[in-house]
Fold these 4 entries.
Entry 1:
Amino acid sequence: MAPTLYLVIPCYNEEQVLPVTSKLFLDKIMSLVNAGKIADTSRVCFINDGSRDKTMDIIRSLCSEDEHFAGISLAHNKGHQNALICGLMEVSDKCDMTISMDCDGQDDINAIDGMVDEYIKGAEIVFGVRSDRKTDTWFKRTTAQSYYKFLRFMGVDIIPDHADYRLMSSRALKALAGYSEVNVFLRGIIPQLGFKTAIVYYSRAERMAGSTHYPLKKMLSLAVDGITSFSIKPLRMITTLGMLIAILSFIGIIYIIVGAIIGNTAEGWASTTILLCFLSGIQMVSLGVIGEYIGKIYMETKRRPRYIVDEEINLPEDKE
């Protein structure tokens, strides 16, 4: 029997691009069904992340036109990662595998064929990895490459040039359900699951319509989450830096005392001011890093739900 596949696609204010890409998603599902690779019970499942435009109306319309479309609407905007994990968890018992991807059409839809082939060969997780970054600006390309290297340096197990385009089996999804943290960074969690993995390379295209919903501010926030959720090296670096400054300060004190004894002293406020400003800056940065970790602890201890589902459309009963 052919396996059931669910495409899980988070959407936030995608009224411009959704009518275009939804047809491509459906055509890909039907081509795989006709080829006998997946079952006709497969679905394209959109996750409406509290959109303020007509995104959910479009999803309802698509679901009424074709049963291969399904929709989940969150009661409030919870962010891309939470919307994605909502979709994965809500459909995990309804299918044999999921493929998560963005709604904007930038992820090469033809890479799905390779992912399904790898699943049939036995892979539980298949990562979609960009073969190049030609569509990125020089700034984004440089910062992205530096970010991946920095995460590796911090001890985070992450796949370079991989975002959230991936296949996961129902077995891998059940393992993912055991990760209940509120600060979700799936790019760091998924490689830790430990199942058999594979990689499918693809070229990322330009957005088909609309504008990006991931500006620099959100990218920086995701970067901070990736570091603080999986590594305590920043805290250790602060400790090391503190010890180094303490040693240098001790040497400076000895130098001053020796200078006073031999009468080689010089008055000056500039050096003193610079030193105070430097130490104050180090202290503020250190407090900021420590505060980021404390904030993460605070959010986790409240144990609030990561998402609340408001509406579900065309989702069948769980598979037995």
Entry 2:
Amino acid sequence: MKKGEPVDRALRRLKKKVDREGTLKEVRNHRHFEKPSEKRRRRMKVAKFNAMLAARYADV
């Protein structure tokens, strides 16, 4: 915390930093075992979505 900074602002800053780093997402992913095939399927789904977005906004 910075000197004289309200607690809610410091908490908001911390939440943004944790969100950007992906810490909570990683913890949630490790709550249960994920089979390699499930992991591959999830990654392929994300890659497909990102490719679709890239294709959609390539002209812009």
Entry 3:
Amino acid sequence: MMMNRKNALLLFCTFLKSLSKKEVLEYRQKIIDDKIPWLQLIAIANSDYMIPLLYMALQKNCLYDDILDEQLKEYLYTIYTFNYERNKQILQQLDDLVSTLSPLGITPLLLKGSAVLCENDYDDLGARSLTDIDILIKEDALKNAFNALVANGYHFTREEDKRTLTKDFHHIEPISKEGYPSSVELHRTILGKGVSTYMLDYEQHMTKSTHKDFADINILTPTYRLYHAFLHTELQDADYKFKRLALRHLFDFTVLVKKYEQEIDWKLLDQLVTKKECKEILEDYLYVVNQLFSLQTPLTTTTKRAQRHYRMVCKEFELRNSWLGYFYPLSAQIPKLLQAYSYKKLQKIHSFNSYNGYIIAIFKHFYFHIKSKIF
């Protein structure tokens, strides 16, 4: 069975929610009748490292055992188990990081997925996939922290990343240590250029980890974790501008709201986005979360603007990986395309020395992009 990408996305998100008894019976029958487009759901999950989460959700909703395809069940279970063991090793790696930095008087602040894992926000060690460990070190301690980690066996993950620590970026390049599964990004600021000022007061909104082994490590308060999650994807990564769907991070947001419901200061969050003039962006973001995961918050509203944004996000998802998707939405992509096809950029790639060479390079580059999207 095949369905369009938007409907497959909505079905995938449905499986991640806590289903009612009636819904469980309904989807159980669809699974038995082979009316679930598993290949499409697997593709969606794979695109955002969410296979372990899909496995966990199917188990919690008592649907996993109804799957008839034994290879599919084995695949889901294997990836989940691998991620469970990997996350155990990441916690050991985190302990190693803390043990290395603690003698220097450096207390790191865990960010994003690292905090999610440390706080066990999913109530399942194997559910959340991590691509790296993000920790914030104050600027005046960053060089000492880096040198201590290098002395402990860490090195740049990519050979080409051997640059200075004075690089004008909000975190240094990823570093890794043999024997541990994850790379580490040492942040000097929580957010990058253009949005770093949005969280200058983060130190007033820190708390200690609830993990028994990391009682001295810092994390953000629930309200600021939500604020950071929103800012990171929608503004720093420009997902709002390009109408992109950061599915894993949207679900993180949902999990955090449900777990820390009584601790979240929605009035403060409203004040923050109002002050920074991004309230409409948050409203559109919350509407998308509501449509995908049925999450209702005190700041969730339904406006024509939010509905239009949701439609465009879904359209971008439908067109993703197609040649049309490369240009959608056109209003946001034009500045990106102008930069990608600039004289200076193409000269580095195609090594021409004349205007005629530039014209030829434009056609070559355009052909390369169209070919990569179609074939």
Entry 4:
Amino acid sequence: MEPAETLAGLRLLHSNLLSNPRLGRLLSGNRIRPTELSGLPVSGFDGLRLSACDVASIRQLSGRSARPNRTDPAQALLTELTRQQVTVLGQWQPAYPRLLKEIADPPAMLFVKGNLSLLNGAALAVVGSRKATLPALRVTRSLTTSLAETGLTVVSGLARGVDTHALSGALSGGRAVAVIGTGINRYYPASNRELQRTLEQRGAVVSEFMPDAPPRAAHFPQRNRLISGLSVGTLVTEATLRSGSLITARCAADQGREVFAMPGSPDGEHNRGGHQLLREGATLVETPEDILTELDGHGLMKLAQHPVGQSRRSRAESESTAPAEAMDTLEAAVLRRISMSEHLPADLMRGENLSLSQMSTVLMRLELAGRIQRKGGRVYLRE
């Protein structure tokens, strides 16, 4: 039955009678599948501002046969997408992201290349400026590397700057999802072509736009609601007051999701967006543990890295009280272990008897200090 539903949805989108979000609202509001639109009463189309002629056309298209037809553009498109290893996910399918179904205007269909399971796991959106400062880019990459290593998926756009570093950092744990503002078969910006291809193999790339759709300005604010909609929370690492990152944060707040922001220098224009979010009640973030602790109560958070009988929150409280001298000693011990043999972070954690949050914090501090670098899931000393 699924090919018939998929073909009906593709026909409707190809007709331009309904955009993907409008078709999504129509399906979710009436709790039906695309083929069932052929029998939907006129009252079921209320609120979409469709003419009687448009409603008749929608009914006709949704009721067409799924038998092979060489003149059907939807069948030709589905064949080509299958050849390109693109999965078409409809609202009616079990693999469609559960969190996305909860937003006001979920797309009827998603086009996905990569690991579908990442779309239904615990995820954090990480966004920020295209022209971010070097310290912000370094923090972003270090933070997302640590978060991905805990099992948290990082969702972002594919823009230059913070988005690029967020996804690159999360790729070390194979838990990165890019939501793009073009067709799934387009590479934009060109400078991120290789990153997008890597995400298709080791993470996932998602679009709600029809294949071949170009990068139009209106697509990116529309895309932002999906970045936040796929995630239990959104982190802004650096942004101006007038930026797409703040649009994503507002979407997250409207969707009932958590909003996080990193503080920065008060005299920098690039930090004003984050500071505004903090004034509005966003959670301040300095370490990965700040995020993990805040998300601890969410049902999707199943990061079983803490000992039985001790919550992540209680661990955070006990670790935050450790004296600075102890942390310095810990950093020195980790540096010695790295210099002896370059291990995966998990190996380092076992060797020093550290909790996951302790190791994330230590590695982040060492990376920000320029003492180490992380690549391919391994930790190296900087020369």
